[in-house]
């Protein structure tokens, strides 16, 4: 299994890049969002990868973070979601957006991805909602790949431009506090995600207070 490639970016296509790794060129398929964050030809780059093996095909898919790679793995575990649909969802929402949409049960956001219909979007949300809390927490600790070392004779390394950062560790800390108070992880993650959507500037304490209000019995 090829889990990561790092080297010189030789070519940028509409949906893939060619990365030279020690004289061997790897074609890696990426989302539009990831492609926008990569350097131009000649720049150094590194991507986490997932290898899809079929009878007549071997394809590498690349991701800037382990969180995004893990979401790709989970998305493609849902019946009807192939690599193309998964990349469309990640391109539209980003890894953090997927986490929030699934935690909130927001099938409409998933449906915004090209080629994803309402039934498939609902299936994605229903099948993965219980897995969102762990991945949301993972997103605040997962490292990004280090840029590739320059090839001999290169004057400089162009680092991979990172996509917009995740909101900090506040949501993971808030979810941990709520689960310690006895709330079920899916309920805690949905409340924290809803509180973050309402006010992204909240710190841990503010998120906990806002989530508790959302979790409080109505009436």
From TrEMBL:
Domain (DNA helicase Holliday junction RuvA type): residue spans on this chain: 1-62
A GO cellular component annotation in the UniProt record: Holliday junction resolvase complex
Region (Domain III): 169-219
UniProt region (Domain I), positions on chain: 1-64
Limits of the Holliday junction DNA helicase RuvA C-terminal domain: 170-216
One Gene Ontology term from the biological process aspect of the record: DNA repair
Molecular function per GO: ATP binding; four-way junction DNA binding; four-way junction helicase activity
Entry-linked Pfam families: HHH_5, RuvA_C, RuvA_N
Coiled-coil stretches noted in the UniProt entry, renumbered to this chain: none
SUPFAM superfamilies from the UniProt entry: DNA helicase RuvA subunit, C-terminal domain, Nucleic acid-binding proteins, RuvA domain 2-like
Keywords: ATP-binding, Cytoplasm, DNA damage, DNA recombination, DNA repair, DNA-binding, Helicase, Hydrolase, Nucleotide-binding
Subcellular location: Cytoplasm
Assembly mode: Homotetramer. Forms an RuvA(8)-RuvB(12)-Holliday junction (HJ) complex. HJ DNA is sandwiched between 2 RuvA tetramers; dsDNA enters through RuvA and exits via RuvB. An RuvB hexamer assembles on each DNA strand where it exits the tetramer. Each RuvB hexamer is contacted by two RuvA subunits (via domain III) on 2 adjacent RuvB subunits; this complex drives branch migration. In the full resolvosome a probable DNA-RuvA(4)-RuvB(12)-RuvC(2) complex forms which resolves the HJ.
Domain remark in the UniProt entry: Has three domains with a flexible linker between the domains II and III and assumes an 'L' shape. Domain III is highly mobile and contacts RuvB.
Function: The RuvA-RuvB-RuvC complex processes Holliday junction (HJ) DNA during genetic recombination and DNA repair, while the RuvA-RuvB complex plays an important role in the rescue of blocked DNA replication forks via replication fork reversal (RFR). RuvA specifically binds to HJ cruciform DNA, conferring on it an open structure. The RuvB hexamer acts as an ATP-dependent pump, pulling dsDNA into and through the RuvAB complex. HJ branch migration allows RuvC to scan DNA until it finds its consensus sequence, where it cleaves and resolves the cruciform DNA.
Family: Belongs to the RuvA family.
Descriptive protein name: Holliday junction branch migration complex subunit RuvA
Organism: Roseicitreum antarcticum
């Amino acid at each position: 299994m090829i889990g990561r490639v790092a080297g010189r970016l030789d070519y940028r296509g509409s949906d893939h890049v060619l990365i030279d790794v020690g004289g061997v060129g790897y074609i890696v398929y990426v989302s539009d969002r990831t492609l926008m964050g990569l350097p131009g030809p000649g720049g150094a780059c590194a991507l986490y990868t997932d290898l899809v093996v079929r009878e007549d095909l071997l394809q590498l898919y690349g991701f800037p973070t382990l969180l995004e790679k893990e979401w790709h793995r989970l998305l493609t575990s849902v019946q009807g979601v192939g690599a193309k649909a998964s990349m469309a969802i990640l391109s539209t929402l980003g890894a953090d957006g997927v986490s929030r949409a699934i935690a909130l049960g927001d099938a409409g956001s998933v449906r915004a991805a090209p080629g994803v219909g309402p039934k498939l979007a609902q299936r994605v949300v229903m099948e993965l909602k219980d897995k969102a809390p762990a991945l949301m927490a993972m997103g605040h600790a997962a490292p990004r790949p280090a840029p590739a070392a320059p090839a001999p004779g290169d004057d400089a390394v162009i680092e991979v431009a990172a996509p917009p950062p995740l909101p900090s560790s506040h949501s993971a800390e808030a979810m941990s506090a709520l689960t310690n108070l006895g709330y079920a992880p899916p309920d805690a993650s949905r409340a924290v995600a809803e509180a973050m959507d309402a006010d992204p500037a909240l710190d841990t304490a503010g998120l906990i207070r806002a989530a508790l209000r959302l979790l409080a019995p109505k009436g």
